[in-house]
Amino acid sequence: xxxxxxxxxxxxxxxxxxxxxxxxxxxxxxxxxxxxxxxxxxxxxxxxxxxxxxxxxxxxxxxxxxxxxxxxxxxxxxxxxxxxxxxxxxxxxxxxxxxxxxxxxxxxxxxxxxxxxxxxxxxxxxxxxxxxxxxxxxxxxxxxxxxxxxxxxxxxxxxxxxxxxxxxxxxxxxxxxxxxxxxxxxxxxxxxxxxxxxxxxxxxxxxxxxxxxxxxxxxxxxxxxxxxxxxxxxxxxxxxxxxxxxxxxxxxxxxxxxxxxxxxxxxxxxxxxxxxxxxxxxxxxxxxxxxxxxxxxxxxxxxxxxxxxxxxxxxxxxxxxxxxxxxxxxxxxxxxxxxxxxxxxxxxxxxxxxxxxxxxxxxxxxxxxxxxxxxxxxxxxxxxxxxxxxxxxxxxxxxxxx
Length: 402
What we know:
Elements: H1 3-16, H2 20-25, E1 29-30, H3 33-42, E2 51-57, E3 67-68, H4 73-79, E4 90-93, E5 96-98, H5 103-110, E6 114-121, H6 129-138, H7 149-157, E7 164-166, E8 183-184, H8 195-203, H9 213-232, H10 239-243, H11 245-259, E9 265-270, H12 279-301, H13 305-308, E10 310-316, E11 336-341, E12 348-350, E13 368-369, H14 370-380
Parallel strand pairs: 1-8, 2-9, 2-10, 6-12, 6-13, 7-8, 7-9
Antiparallel strand pairs: 3-5, 4-5, 6-11, 10-11
């Protein structure tokens, strides 16, 4: 993460009213592998319980060059050199195609595991990164509130912080409630002793006759660490460099779901989408990274019972303006596509495609309220009444799950 990204993330956290310190004060707990795997032994995840994985794309991803209306003359006229030609995109039908960096997503689409939600946004949109992301994370477009939408889900369903885990570099405000907050699991190296010393250390985890409660607990913690290495590998020792930060985060999430950790919601993120200049190459590289991380993750989930209950949400704080700027980039816009992926999803298009000629001062008009998406996920994945999480909002999306 660059210094600029760090500063911007701090500014965002401050602007939302949910600073890292406030989130910790609300009950956030940093956990380690041993604690999570012990929880899996003591209170394993029900194989039929839904799991939600939220992927935040920080910076405002350009939706029109992600799900591309390449055959629309208005798109070609508005974007000149920035536009993709119809033969360059991965055809989805209805005149739309995926960015050429998303070949894995196209395979998921063909397999019915990718839903494209079109024109998602909120009324009276704000072009500020910090205000718009605060709106998406708190699900409160009209007024500023100090709790995130999944934080309110935590408040409504119990007091165990392990029910939600952030694998982000920082705890995002969406996971901070009034009375509790998600646990935080930094992705970092997990390296144990090797050779003769490593064997001796592993033997410390063996049960001994007549040992007391705390001796047994300490021994089990050693065993848990070795199980963590076997289950999760060694994040940070090459995987992060080889596949990217998001892939490292998702590798951890997949391992925790497989291990039966009783977490129902996870948060991961990828930044860099503020493409005001030279967008095409930058965005395609980022979307290729997103594709390369999420595609094997979803394929892995589909291979085992607990994974089949998992659903992935991918969103950004806003789309971009329809017309390219003079720097072959795009400026802050409004509505854009949201992806929902997983074995339970009813693949295909959901919601109406926004018009490129009927605009609101140069911006796309929303056709799907993002709170409808959240309400559907809260009820159909997390099994909770959406009214407890989104008070005053009654909409939802029908037909998103098979």
